Amino acid sequence: MLRWRDLSLNARVGLVGAVFFVLFAYLGPLFSPHNPNEVLGNTWEPSSGKMLLGADSLGRDLLTRLMYGTRLSIELAGAATIISFLLGVTLGFTAAVLRGWFDQVMSRVVDLLMSIPTLIFALVLLSMMPRTGLVLVLVTAVLDSTRPFRLSRAVALDIAVQDFVEAARLRGERTRWIVTREILPNALTPLVAEFGLRFAFIMLFLSSLSFLGLGIQPPEQDLGRMIRDNREGIVYGISAALWPGAIIALLALSVNLVVDAILNRTTSLKGGRGG
Fold first, then answer.
1. Domains of the chain: which residue ranges?
2. Spatial CB neighbours of 271, under 8 Å, sequence gap ≥ 6
3. What's the pLDDT tens digit per position in 153-176?
4. Which fold would CATH assign to domain 25-274?
5. What is the pTM of this model?
């Protein structure tokens, strides 16, 4: 059983940071006395007892909007990352096991998608589609699934030639059984590490889309949208746009510290069993 004292300093910092932002996003609104869309004061009103971080560009409570914006950013990025990995890893493992025409077709399709700049491709697609949270998640997941596909295929190709996989084929096991029982357990370490990296990247990617005006639309707001709405205040020394940017950076850092700790522990455990 993993105990707190067994964790490294980086792991503790990352875990505390990740838990803090989750609690901030999901429990914070329960204690906030304000509605995120309620106008309470003047534009960029300074910090006061009523609004601890001051007001945004429309006079709304910045702290309350940060809570709701962080929650939506976590939900969108988490959903897009999960769908991206389910799609990419499934196709990558299947291509590595089946090989032949399926592997060739999927690899060429992925190469084609990766040859187009992801942000530009997403901007073109979203300009022709309704800008809802579901559409945003699906477009991001499909475009980002090329990375998990390439990684999972490369890892699975190395595992698929091992003796225990050949033995499973000789026993007549189905492709699904080989993928889920033989390949997946032995590929978890690099996939877990990649999951954390993709979560951070997708959060930045979704925030970029919102900043450019093709992401989440008002009255909803994620962290990227908050930066867009308050960006003009930076010229006047107003920090309203810096808070959501800081949350994006710190949350991405926290998640990656946790993932690194999991990766290091998994690697050490495998090494201990092998010895």
1. 25-274
2. none
3. 988 888 877 888 778 777 877 877
4. MetI-like fold (1.10.3720)
5. 0.87
